[in-house]
Amino acid sequence: MTLKQALSHARHILAGNNIEDAPLEGELLLRHTLKISRTQLYLDLNYELSPKQEEAFRRLIKRRLNGEPIAYITKHREFYGLDFYVDPSVLIPRPESELLVETALGLAQNHPPFIIAEVGTGCGAIAISLALSLSEVKIYATDISAAALKIALLNCQKHGVIDRVHLLQGDMLDPLPKPADLIIANLPYVKESELAQVNPTKFEPMLALNGGSDETERIHQLCRQVDSKLRPNGYLLLEIGQGQRRAVSAFLHTLFPNGKIEVVPDLSGTDRVISLSLTSQPELADAQPRR
Ligand code: GLN
Fold first, then answer.
1. 24 C-alpha vs ligand 1 centroid, how far in Å?
2. pLDDT value at 282 more than 70
3. Residue 81 phi/psi, 5° resolution?
4. How high is the pLDDT of residue 290?
5. 270 C-alpha to ligand 1 centroid (Å)
6. According to a count of CB atoms within 10 Å of the terminal CB, is the N or C end of the chain lower?
């Protein structure tokens, strides 16, 4: 079988099993099998796979058909233009979470933060993206899962930010050594009844998705901790799920009656990020979704 035939075989079989982006996934699986770049793949389409390579490729396709996300098979996922190492101990970063990073960077233009705390960092994608864009900032990234922090550590090393991103194990803001100027979090917020839909093959950690009996339970838990962990004039940025804007903003309003609350929709128009500002001026005008 040549590379060209392998691509067409994969496309056919993946598409036949309702995998949305079958051509792209087939290509990624083939490149992963042979450890080659996209250019190398397309320069040598008549290359003949050895029987061993062909067997390895078929095995990867089988794993994919078994519902394993491609990011776990290849152990990579791109987020905010950066490559992150992922495995099943962390949630696969979602494109919609780039809006959290964008919003934080928009805020940072007018109010440069010195200390940022990211809660529930998982593979570290948000903390590392911020560290690379804000060269002066110190970031504390917490996670309750030790396994997730191991992956975050690998990513901090890979992106050279190990001296500025401090990984701390613990629940929410508990391990934070001092108050932050900006607290940012993509906490679990999926309804229990919708978990099967979001994570049908259960490869992703449910802990990172399950919002609790009331889907905003984890978010509310963090909001209750914020008061003692946010510096005067600080900001809180939270990713939320569809339909959660009212509940979360009402809760924040009760806790911080003088705080400014703003909501940023994602590109599909879904309210995706809520910000709470303890300053008197709302500053979100500059933040725009990137795509
Ligand atoms: N946006 C994710 C999804 O619906 C959920 C992530 C989360 O719970 N924070 O797949």
1. 23
2. no
3. 75, 10
4. 47
5. 13
6. C
Question: The pTM is what?
Answer: 0.92
Q: What is the pLDDT of residues 245-272, one digit of tens each?
A: 999 999 999 999 999 999 999 999 999 9
Where would I find the beta strands (DSSP E) of 97-199?
115-119, 138-143, 165-169, 180-185
d(CA 143, CA 216): 18
- Strand spans (E) along 171-244: 180-185, 230-239
C-beta of 200 in contact with ligand 1 (< 6 A): no
**Contact by Cβ (8 Å): 165, 127:** yes
Burial of 16-28, coded b for 16+ CB within 10 Å and e otherwise, reads eeebeebeebbbb
What would the two tokens of residue 147 be? 């396994």
Locate tokens 């490149």: which residue? 31
Sorting pLDDT into bands at 50, 70 and 90, what band is 93?
very high
Q: What are phi and psi of 177, to 5 degrees?
A: -75, -25
Res 230 pLDDT > 50: yes
Q: Can you tell me the distance from the alpha carbon of 109 to that of 120, in angstroms, rounded to the nearest whole number? A: 24
Tokens of 205: 């950690």
